[in-house]
Write a structure and sequence with these properties.
This protein is of the alpha+beta class and about 190 residues long. It contains six helices and four strands, in the order αααβαβαβαβ. The chain has a four-stranded mixed β-sheet. The chain is elongated, with a radius of gyration of 47 Å. The protein starts with a helix and ends with a strand.
C-alpha cells in the first residue's frame, strides 16, 4: 500500500510541476526599429496615360424630315387619305383575305401615327331598305374595327358610324358603282 501512496504523491508532484511550467508567459515581440534614413530619391512617378484616339467615326445627326401628314390639317389628310378602304361582297360584312391585307396596311399607318383617332364609316349600295343598310353598314364598320384591334390598335382610337346607302361614293346604278359603295371608309377625326 505504501507504494501506492508514493505513486499518488509522484503523480501529484508531476501534475503540479507541469501546471507550474504551463504558467510561463510567452515572449513579447519587440517593435521593429524605424528604417534607416538614407538619401534615396523617391521612385519616379509614372507619366499620365495618353488618351487613346477614337477610331470609331461618329455618325451624323439624323436629319429630321418633316412628315407632311404630321404637319397637315385634318382636311388635307382626309382629302389625300393614306388609308385604303375595305370593300365587301353583296349583303356581307365578312373581312376576306383582300380586306385583311388592306387592314394590315391601315394598321401600320395607325401605328406610325399613334395619336390619330379615326372614324370607320360603314357604307352600302343603294339596294335594300334604309334600315337594312344602316344595320349592314354598322356591321361592316365594326368588322373592320375588330380586325384592327386584333392587329394591336387600341379600340379607343377607333370610332364607328354607319351611313348605310345615304352617301354613295359612286352615284351610278350598276354593279360597278355598287361594288365601290359597299365599303368601310376611314376618316382621321383627331391627331
Amino acid at each position: 500500500m505504501m507504494t501506492q501512496k508514493r505513486y499518488v504523491v509522484v503523480m501529484l508532484a508531476l501534475v503540479v510541476f507541469a501546471g507550474a511550467c504551463h504558467k510561463s508567459k510567452p515572449p513579447l515581440a519587440k517593435p521593429m526599429p524605424p528604417p534607416a534614413t538614407t538619401n534615396v530619391p523617391p521612385p519616379p512617378t509614372a507619366a499620365p496615360p495618353q488618351p487613346v484616339p477614337d477610331t470609331t467615326p461618329v455618325p451624323p445627326e439624323p436629319k429630321i424630315v418633316d412628315d407632311p401628314l404630321t404637319s397637315s390639317d385634318l382636311d388635307a389628310i382626309n382629302k389625300n387619305s393614306p388609308f385604303q378602304p375595305v370593300f365587301f361582297a353583296l349583303d356581307s360584312y365578312d373581312v376576306d383575305g383582300a380586306a385583311q391585307q388592306v387592314l394590315t396596311g391601315d394598321a401600320a399607318i395607325l401605328k406610325k401615327y399613334p395619336t390619330w383617332v379615326i372614324t370607320i364609316e360603314g357604307h352600302c349600295d343603294e339596294r335594300g331598305t334604309a334600315e337594312y343598310n344602316l344595320a349592314l353598314g354598322e356591321k361592316r364598320a365594326l368588322a373592320a374595327k375588330t380586325y384592327l384591334v386584333s392587329l394591336g390598335i387600341p379600340a379607343d382610337r377607333l370610332r364607328t358610324v354607319s351611313y348605310g346607302k345615304e352617301f354613295p361614293f359612286d352615284p351610278g346604278h350598276d354593279e360597278g358603282a355598287w361594288s365601290k359603295n359597299r365599303r368601310a371608309h376611314f376618316v382621321v377625326t383627331s391627331k
